[in-house]
Structures are given as C-alpha cells and as structure tokens.
Amino acid sequence: MYNQSQTKGKKTKKYHPYGGNKLHQFINLRRLHDYNTDLSAKYKTFRIYNPFHGEVYTSDPANVEYILRTNFDNYGKGAFVNHTLRDLLGDGIFTVDGDEWREQRKASSHEFSKKVLRDFSGVIFTENTIKVGNILLEAAKSNQSVDITDLFTKSTTDSIFKVAFGIDFDNITGSNEEGARFCHAFDEANALILRRFFDISWKIQKYFNIGTEAELKKNLKVINDITYKLIHTKIEQKQKAKDDTLLKKQDLLSRFSQIKNTDPKYVRDIVVSFVLAGKDPIATSLNWFIYMLCKHPQIQDKVAKEIKEATDMSLKQLEITNVAEFATRVTEEALDKMQYLHATLTETLRLYPALSIDSKTCFSDDVLPDGGSVKKGEAMIYMPYAMGRMTFIWGDDALEFKPERWLDENGVFHPASPFKFTAFQAGPRTCLGQDFAYRQMKIFSSILLGCFTFKLSDESKIPNYRVTINLQMDDPLHVFVSKRYGIYA
Q1: Cα angle vertex 480, ends 336, 447, to 5°?
Q2: Contacts of 182 (CB under 8 A, 6+ apart)
Q3: What residues have CB less than 8 Å from 277, skipping those under 6 apart?
Q4: Which of 25, 163, 385, 398 has the fewest CB atoms within 10 Å, measured from its CB?
C-alpha cells in the first residue's frame, strides 16, 4: 500500500504510493477527474509527483473526515492555494484561513440563517424559473430544441446577483449586454485559473503576459470592471439613504459593505466568491440533473409523478393554463413532500458534484488515519467526483444512477455521512449555501418537470466536462421539451 518506508532518526514514516506526476495529469487534463478516479480505485490515497511541493490525493472517507474535521486546524487553504487562485477570488472566503475566514464565515452564516433571505430568495427563484418555463413553452410549441445549459446559467446568475447583491442582470431575456459579458468572462476565467494547478509554466506566462495567462488577464479585467462598478453603485446608494436599516437587510453585498470601511477590494473579493458559489454550482448541477433524467426516462416520470401528487395536480391539472399558475402550487409544503426529487438531485450530485476536487494545505507534519504521512506544506486533496464512483464506498452499483439508495423503506430521504458524500464539503467548512442550493434546485426542477417532459435532441451524445473550478459541461446540452399532463389545454 505504501512506498518504501523512510527512516529519520528513530522514527519511520510511511508514504502513500505515487500514482503519477504532474505531466501525466496535464496530458490527461481533459479527463482529469476520471484519471484521478482510476488511480483512486487502485490506491484510495496516492501521491502525484510535483517538483515544487508534494501532493497527496485521497478518496478515503476516514482520511477526509480527519482533514476536514478531526484535525481541521492543521489543514487550510494555505499560501499555495491563495496565491494560485488570488487573481480571480482575491481574499474571499474560499482562499483565506484564520481570522479572515472566520469573519466572513460568521457574517455569511448570519445572513443565510435569516428567514427574510430565505423567503426573498424563494420569490426570486420562482420568478426566474417562470421566465425559463415561458421560453421552454415557446420551444415546445415550435418543436425546437433548446440549449438548457445556457438557460440555467443565465437564470442562476440572475438569481445570485438579485439575492446576494440586489442587482437585476436580466440575463434570461438577453437584454443585458453587460451581464452576458460578465458571464462569459467569468466562465473563461474559471477554467483558466484552475489550469494553473496543472500547468507549472503559468507563472512564466503571467510574467510575459502570454498564452493562457494573457487570456486570463483580459477576462479578469472584464470581471473587475463590472464588479467594481456594481460595488460603487451600492456604496453610493447606502450613502444617499437617510435610514440604511432597510438597505442592510436587502442583500449580502449591503451587509459586507459595512465591514472594513467599505474597502472596494475587500467587497470585490466577497462578491466574486459568492458569484462562484451561487452561479455555476447550481446551474451545473441542474444541467447534469436534466441529462440524467433524459437518460433515465423512467426516473424522470417517477419524479414528475411525485411533483404531480405533491402539488395536488391529480385533482386540478386542467385548471392550470401556464407556467406561472403551476408555480403557485409549488409551496413550501409541497416541496417538503418531494422526497424522491430530493433523492434524485442528491444522486446527481454524488456522480457529478459541482466541486469535483478540493485542495487543502498541511500546516505541520502529520499522519493520516490510514498510516500514511503528510509533510508540512504539502497539498492534501480530496476528490468528491472520484469518491462518488468508488465501489468500496457505495457498493458494486456505485456507477448506477439510483435515487432509491437515499430513501428508507418509507420513501423518506436519509442523508449519508458528509465525509462519504462530500459534494458540500464537511466539518467547519461545510457549505453555508447547502440548503440555499437545494431550495433553488427543487424550485427549478419541480416547476419545470411539473410542466414539461425533457428529451435529449441527440440521444447518442455523451457530454464531457470542462476542467474548471466547477464540473461544467464542455458543450451545450440541447433538449426537446413537450407539455406534460395536458397542461395548457
């Protein structure tokens, strides 16, 4: 299981086996997560040779629990991750440790716990889903395929900017050119910044402003120009307001602008981090969700049947004449009844986690539960994508899309250990937006699946992923939609 032991004084240290080196990863960059999955199936925990610092990769839940909870203080983002991601994420919550992380975590946690934010977000999610539904209705009438990835990305972008920052980008209708520019630049920067982890020449390219680093710089300028414009607008609104009590309650940006004397750079880093958390992961998850339902029509029908029953459509389906009317039936009570939908979304996240790989830095020499040593300064990386495919974690049917694995004998959803199902991290850094994400995905999917049947425009196509911070599809997902249950009679 381990490489040859190394002896130093009276202590013997054991190191995990080498699975390859950075060149192997770079060669396999387009299928990086599957490359790491193959190594995980062989080793559980392994090393990748990096001439600059050690890297340890694990899919072992015991090791994951140890680094994310048991010995949490010894594993953080560290200088390496901060330096690599800083041009895009700055000193936001995803790149910092210590007091800076605690300050942002506390403020974010306080805001996410508020009922007013939950209720407000529900309204925004529903409004944007109706907009998407109306576009799908027109596609259904004309029997035209539609790019669902584009629609979901625009919708989640509109939602996160409205809920978190009080700004309406209106990407869904395509009327906001600035919003479209921001989304394109953000997606490109996302992919290019992650490439730095596997391309050891990135610092040279950045110094000479060539290659992918030159492209990254252009996209970052677009992101920064638009973001700082939004921040200054918000600050001006706050300064003009005689009573800013209401302003503080409206969005996350207003709250964070109260910290550190409204330093625009600090607020910029907060903004970009929350855009990353609220835009791409949810859109990406919904894309894979629709794809999996198209590949498993019997599961799609079962989800739709549950939605129909939860919204009492069996009694009043003929009274529903449009998407907006159906959306009024998707109440809190109805969403709570959708246990199979929740399980199907979770099963999608098991196989296609938005955060497919996550890196921590070891702050002092340590020994993992499996006996393998980790040196100070080494990267300690766990892999939600690979973990979701491990038979030693999920059984022989690990590669099957099986929502039932999340339900008890009464059809009630039961979560797995967060150190086994790591789509939302675990321990002190557990994703603050987990409930926020499920809420948005359930509102979107229940309304859309309650109104439409989805079918791939090309049944033979198997989508690939882009190696970005999130597991985005490499190409647009085109689908045909048709009206469901005689709605719009």
Answers
A1: 20
A2: 157, 169, 222, 223, 226
A3: 94, 160, 431, 433
A4: 398
Please tell me what DSSP assigns to residue 67: I
Which residue blocks in 320-469 are alpha helix, DSSP H? 323-327, 332-337, 339-351, 384-387, 391-394, 434-451
Amino acid at 276: L
In a 13 Å sphere around the CA of 221, the CA atoms on its Cβ side amount to: 5
Q: Which residue has the tokens 């805001």?
A: 111
Q: Quick one: which of 64, 40, 66, 45 has its CA closest to 398? A: 40
Task: Name the token pair of 113.
Answer: 């716990």
Measured CA to CA in angstroms, residue 210 lies from 27, 141, 191, 205, 221 at distances of 21, 48, 16, 5, 16
Pick from 195, 197, 190: nearest CA to 361: 197
- In total, the chain counts a number of residues equal to 489
Phi/psi-derived region of residue 471, left when phi > 0, alpha when psi is between -120 and 50, beta in every other case = beta
Q: Helices 177-195 and 78-89 meet at what angle, rounded to 10?
A: 160
Contact 481, 148 (CB under 8 A): no
In angstroms, the CA 463 to CA 473 distance is: 6
Tokens encoding 193: 């910044």
Comparing C-alpha atoms, which of 335, 345, 293 is closest to residue 310?
335
- CA 321, 325, 326, 327 dihedral sign is positive
User: Which neighbouring-strand residues pair with 13?
Assistant: 6
What would the two tokens of residue 262 be?
Answer: 């409204």
Residue 140: count of CB within 10 angstroms of its CB? 20
Residue 431, marked binder:
yes
φ and ψ at residue 200, rounded to 5 degrees: -70, -5
As a whole number of angstroms, the distance between CA 170 and CA 402 comes to 36
CA–CA dist 47, 53 (Å, integer): 11
Greatest C-alpha distance within the chain: 81
Rounded distance, CA 22 to CA 379, Å? Answer: 13
The SS3 of residue 29 is: helix
CB 386 within 8 Å of CB 37: yes
